[in-house]
Amino acid sequence: MGPPGAGKGTQGELLAQHFGIPRYSTGDILRDARRSTTELGLEAQRYMDAGELVPDAVILGIVEQVMSEPEAAGGFLCDGFPRTVAQARGLAEVLARDDLALDAVLNLTVGVGEIVSRLTRRAGLEGRTDDDLQTVRRRLEVYEEQTAPVLEYYRESPVGVTNVDGTGTVDEIQARLRERLSA
Ligand code: AP5
Ligand code: MG
User: Fold this and answer.
1) pTM above 0.90, yes or no
2) Which of 15, 25, 28, 30 has the most ligand 1 atoms within 8 A of CB, as the residue to mutate?
């Protein structure tokens, strides 16, 4: 978990490699769907370009599908999901069906100034269509309104939330995450 630009993708990729498990980024799955202009991609595009969330039913459909793949049997890492309390409840149902539980909820904390600087820099380098300043601001608002409550949801559940400082070098942050997971 973490706001836009917190480093979920960067750190999630390294953690998934370390544990030898797949990483499921709903954002990456949606961007792939857009590139291959599938029905899903076309539906998601207008939400993503506006910095809004794609509807819960669409996301839960994707997540159920990836989690039923054989590669998910040894565990998996979710990046950028769940992003609403409804998604968190949906995930809990999917997990309970297979008698599974979350091992940890990791939350990368990064201040707004650093986020805006990271993402607007990436807009220049990679041209991600939702990294212009106006859309970044909207993504941050959406995060506060719809995703921050997910942290409350997990804080009140047995798994809890592990906050990890998301500033510093990529290696420093990765070391912090692994340390917290082994604690
Ligand atoms: P998504 O793709 O999840 O985007 P996001 O949450 O806005 O996050 P980012 O991918 O931009 O950032 P990140 O935290 O992964 O950081 P990263 O490692 O890339 O979602 C995009 C859209 O898809 C949403 O707006 C929504 O429309 C839709 N969507 C996705 N999931 C959904 C869901 N569950 N429900 C509904 N809608 C959904 O790093 C960011 C940048 O910073 C990079 O350039 C990186 O190189 C740099 N960086 C990383 N670490 C550091 C560091 N330590 N120091 C300096 N720079 C760093
Ligand atoms: Mg990402």
Assistant:
1) yes
2) 30
